[in-house]
Design brief:
This protein has 6 helices and 8 strands. Strands 1-6-3-8-2 form a 5-stranded antiparallel sheet. The protein has a 3-stranded antiparallel sheet with strand order 5-4-7, with no helix packed on it. Bound molecules: 2-oxoglutaric acid (AKG).
């Protein structure tokens, strides 16, 4: 899938499924590191400090171009974490919209916050599927969510039945839910959220370990993604490498 195709799907549906985002070798490396992190107390919440591979996922060669095409060249990481859902558990969430109540933004026409889920195990039809109401990212603000007794009752919903290595990028304004895990498989997922360089994130770069800070300092794009201050550059004007510089329009001078 090209970044342009991904952007089209994302704009039309409020999410995009990215098949085979990770190749077999990457999947093996990430999965092994994930299992080690899951065995540590708090390891999945603090995934960036657990293994270099989780820092590498921030600017993954297939996923970052799609994030750029959707969020823009000023993208920044908001948080990164792992999620493990045990087989046969009532681990679903209700239908919701992450951004309802956010102020100052016209949400039906915004890409203010996105979440990227990268799956490390297949999620079958009866698994802990992330599910969406396609097009709900365009609903007028304040549009009420129906009061439903069961996840399955949401009209027009679409379940993300995915294979290990697939990823899903969603708009934080799209109506979504995670279904209960009725399958015999654990759900293992990486969840990375992206915002713009001028927004606050959920952690500070300086709270990461010295080793992770060193990995981040290696490239311009990583410094932007992790919000490391760039001397002489405002947060408004940050752009990925190779992009035209931020230039406010000025007339009459
Ligand atoms: O874990 C999932 O599949 C969905 C999580 C969710 O609902 C959210 O991040 O808001």
């Amino acid at each position: 899938m090209t970044p342009e195709q991904a952007r089209r799907d994302y704009d039309a549906q409020g999410y995009v499924l990215i098949p085979n985002a990770l190749n077999a070798e990457e999947l093996k490396r990430v999965r092994e590191a994930f299992d080690r992190a899951a065995a540590e107390r708090g390891g999945l919440r603090d995934i960036l400090n657990q293994d270099d591979v989780f820092v590498d996922m921030v600017d993954h060669p297939v996923l970052l171009p799609i994030v750029r095409a959707v969020v823009g060249d000023d993208a920044q990481l908001r948080y990164a974490q792992g999620g493990l859902i045990k087989p046969g558990t009532d681990s679903g969430s209700g239908w919701h919209c992450d951004l309802s109540g956010l102020m100052g933004v016209y949400l039906p026409d915004s890409v203010i916050m996105t979440k990227l889920f990268t799956y490390l195990e297949d999620v079958p039809e009866n698994g802990a599927c992330l599910s969406f109401v396609p097009g709900s990212h365009r609903y007028e603000m304040g549009h009420p969510l129906p009061d439903l007794a069961a996840h399955e009752d949401m009209p027009h919903h679409v379940k993300m039945v995915v294979r290990a290595g697939d990823a899903v990028l969603m708009n934080g304004y799209t109506w979504h839910a995670r279904f209960h895990n009725r399958s015999d498989r654990p759900r293992k997922v990486l969840e990375y959220s992206y915002v713009h360089s001028w927004m606050k994130t959920m952690y500070e770069f300086k709270d990461l370990s010295p080793h992770v800070q060193e990995l981040v300092m290696k490239s311009h794009n990583r410094r932007q993604l992790f919000g490391v201050p760039e001397p002489g550059q405002s947060d408004w004007g940050r752009r990925f490498e190779g992009c035209p510089a931020y230039q406010p329009v000025e007339v009459g001078v």
